[in-house]
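I had to read the description of the data format several times before I understood it. In essence, backbone conformation is discretised, so a fold becomes a row of integers matching the chain in length. I therefore recommend that a typical entry be quoted early in the introduction. For illustration, here is how one protein appears when written out as sequence plus structure tokens.

***
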Amino acid sequence: MDSIGNRIKAIRTQKRLSLSELAEAAGVAKSYLSNVERDIQSNPSIQFIEKMAATLKVPINSLLFGEQEDEPLDAEWTQLVQEAMASGVDKQQFKDFLEYQKWKKNQ
């Protein structure tokens, strides 16, 4: 499983930022960032993660869980998902519904 440090490093290198550049832009110690990236410090604070996410311009979930969102859900979609979850619809049922809708559209 990828660590937060590995995800930060991957995004940093993808954005062609040096360790020093990211540390300075985020306002964190270069040595601390280096320790996180090398998994010496494997449990960074939420404040650190928030600074990294903001500076790298990625959702916090990308750093915590490796999830990447092209665009965040708007309030209406978020409400619909929450209502579906509250009503007991599970992920598989939702996937089945989407597949059925795709099939129906192509008929």
In short: The chain has seven helices and no strands. The chain has a mean pLDDT of 87.
